[in-house]
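Notes, p. 3: input format for complexes.
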Amino acid sequence: MDIFLKSLDEFKWETSSAERIKSGANPRTQWKQLVDKDICDSSGISVGYSKIPKGEDLPLHNHKPQEIYFVMKGSGFLLMENHKLKHIKEGDIVFIPENKYHGIKNSGDCALEFLFIFTAERWKDINYNFVSNQT
Ligand code: FE
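Output follows (135 residues plus fe (iii) ion):
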């Protein structure tokens, strides 16, 4: 298998499908899928880059696979169960255990951008459960 190398600029921004929006996804939050089985034949890992516009959020949700966030730009709050919040900013890393509820609110003055890493082969196969009325 060959080593895969590409620039972030080469990937296209994606937005949630109508189905995901219906289940609670924010239509204004975007992402780029960077590494997964279909893109570079990776196994057991996938990576993406997400952008939450100023004032927007990635609503509280959970999923089976573990996830890591690495905040690249901006600041805001990490949303957790029971309305708990933690301030997050550029340079912060977050580990989310299996099935743990989490989300991000951008409360800064620019877009909040972060890398997300999953122990899953494809992001599109991950089942998101949004808690639309808890944030
Ligand atoms: Fe998540």
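The chain has one domain: 12-130.
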